[in-house]
């Protein structure tokens, strides 16, 4: 893992690093006495496949047998995380990738001396970005455009603040939050690319913590349809040690999983 302050990186946090190795070793002993696990009420709907929900519940039961306490918490704005993220992320994508114009950075296509700069930029971006990146650039450019910035990007950032407040409130009641990592197990390559929304739903449980900016980890907790199911553990910012303790305990309790062979 990478952790700690980097004096050459103005965005890194100049704070001590928790003893995550010690926390993982403590968790591996199988003692979670006094640890409170927050079960997010808003994640309890019908979004997860039955096999995923069952494996997650088995993982939760394994942790309670080690002494952990399960507490249901409400994070009411988590339901808005998916649309908020897919406005914020494409907007940042559009802004950051604007530099890749074939002039200073990256790929340069069509520069044979016969084309205007605008055509070189167009050819470069057409060749250099895949379909999903282009989709996000277009969405982000629209969300940041004049007359729409406040209505889309600005509103999404307000939702992000509310989600952060949900996390803050939840962590006043529990040590970590837990959920499935994804609503469904791995699907055949390319089977959902025709429906971007179905692809984005894979991020349903992981997006809130991404918007919050705290640490999270995924540990296999069982199998569904012969494929691994992930158990997500989310912790407060700068409290990675809590996450590692619970993750190590779950990993020790579950043991080795043997997924089916993929044809």
Automatic annotation (TrEMBL):
InterPro entries membership: Amidase, Amidase_dom, AS_sf
Domain Amidase: 2-242
Gene3D superfamilies in UniProt: Amidase signature (AS) domain
Domain of life, per lineage: Bacteria
GO function term, MF aspect, one: catalytic activity
Protein name, UniProt field: Amidase domain-containing protein
């Amino acid at each position: 893992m990478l952790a700690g302050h980097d004096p050459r990186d103005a965005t890194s946090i100049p704070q001590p690093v928790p003893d995550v190795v010690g926390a993982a070793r403590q968790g591996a002993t199988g003692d979670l006495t006094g640890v409170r696990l927050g079960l997010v009420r808003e994640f309890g709907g019908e979004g997860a496949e039955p096999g995923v929900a069952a494996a997650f519940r088995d993982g939760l039961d394994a942790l309670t047998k080690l002494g952990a306490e399960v507490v249901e918490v409400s994070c009411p704005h988590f339901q808005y995380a998916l649309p908020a993220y897919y406005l914020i992320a494409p907007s940042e994508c559009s802004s950051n990738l604007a530099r890749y114009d074939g002039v200073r950075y990256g790929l340069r296509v069509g520069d044979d001396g016969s084309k205007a700069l605008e055509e070189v930029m167009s050819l470069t971006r057409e060749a250099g970005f895949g379909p999903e990146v282009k989709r996000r650039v277009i969405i982000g450019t629209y969300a940041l455009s004049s007359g729409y910035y406040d209505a889309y990007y600005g509103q999404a950032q307000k939702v992000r603040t509310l989600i952060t407040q949900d996390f803050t409130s939840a962590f006043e009641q529990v040590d970590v939050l837990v959920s499935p990592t994804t609503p469904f197990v791995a699907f055949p390559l390319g089977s959902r690319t025709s429906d971007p929304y179905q692809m984005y739903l894979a991020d349903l449980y992981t997006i809130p913590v991404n918007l919050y900016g705290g640490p999270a980890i995924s540990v296999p907790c069982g199998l569904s349809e012969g494929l691994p199911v992930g158990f997500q553990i989310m912790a407060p910012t700068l409290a990675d040690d809590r996450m590692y303790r619970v993750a190590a305990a779950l990993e020790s309790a579950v043991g080795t999983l043997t997924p089916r062979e993929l044809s």
